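Figure S4 source data
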Amino acid sequence: METESKKRTSIFLKMLDDKKAIRECLRNNGNLGKLAKERGIQFATPV
């Protein structure tokens, strides 16, 4: 029954959502490292 309560999203929708969050973070001078850790995003180069 736990799987029904968990919302399933495709990897592409998650990627687009992460991209929007990164863009907003950069525009608002947010902490990109903190955002990456919260969302589980890994960059090619260290932040």
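Figure S5 source data
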Amino acid sequence: MKKIFFLILFISPLVSHSQTLEELYNKLVNKDKPVANKIQYKQVMNEIVTLNSTSNAFWKGGSSKTALYVKLPLGTVKWHYRVTLMDIRQNYSYNLNESLYSLLSNNHPLFVNNQTSLGVNFYIINDYARDDFYADRNFSRYTDYQNENTKGFNGICNLVYNNLMICLNNPNLKDGIKAIVEVVAYGNF
């Protein structure tokens, strides 16, 4: 009788009013088993940015550069990015089933549908280098993830810091450009 009393005394604080004995048993038995997170994709960024020509940036006060924060969710293992370029007067966008997120989630081949022959400089930096990037000073960047005068591309980045930025620079003297920047995280969410 004492054993039953101590067993009830031990179990009663663990049982909430809505738990059944089976749920309690499963909770106690599976207590030490790790919870399996699902490996999946998560859209982080899908932005259209405008980059003026370097002459407009100088004479009219526009900007030929932009720096975008990459806000990766906790559990990110790696992240994919795609940069699509178009002329400044165009308003192109991908269909929903052509977005980077949709292509990756459905295991479809990746593509870039560039709408211009112009190029852009692409860098991944930490946010402490942002001021140097904007001021045309020498700035720290991850050279493994750098593309200069490129016409749009996609890639994978294994850096998962919380202060990463994607930087774009339009080196063209007379033509402005628009860019669609997409980022999709891959990990345990």
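The chain is about 20% helix and 35% strand. Helices lie at 2-11, 21-29, 54-59, 100-105, 130-134.
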